[in-house]
Amino acid sequence: MLIQTDLVTLRPLNENDAQEFYLWSLDREVTKYSISSYAYPQSLSDIEKWLASINASNKTVSLGICCPQSNKLVGYAGITSISALNRCGEYFILIGDKSYWGKGIATEVTKLITEYGIKTLGLNRVELTAFAENPAAVKAYEKAGYQHEGVLRQAGFRDGQFYDKVMMAVLAQDWI
What we know:
By secondary structure, the protein is α+β, with helices and mostly antiparallel strands. It has helices at about 20-25, 30, 45-55, 105-120, 135-145, and strands at about 5, 10, 60-65, 75-85, 90-95, 125-130, 145-160, 160-170.
């Protein structure tokens, strides 16, 4: 599967992407608000094994985010915890290359993957959580059409303290 716009190209991930993931994992600023597995050191070999298995799950869709001009991998995003019964899933994104932050890529990717989840996978609901201390992420999700549903108090632990997370979602009936 390949999705391309003027701003991004989304493509399947593979083992050849391991070096970029490894470099991102070494930068605490990149991984601070990411999934908990980035909170612990990972070897290049661990990342290669994870990437080798990533496309085998029927509960997760993971796509590499690339610059369309250079084809450089700059991040990844997708939907995980896909429930066929409940027709829902959880959106995630990581822009690993900081030189691509603040360029509207997160909003664009969020729209593309949400549309894929609703129109192609037939999901009724795509949800996410974001650290309340990460206003750039919350703003990108709002621009992509996600609505606030509540606050998960002290739901994330980073740098020795607890932080609130905001719960946001899009429903198929509200999707444009």
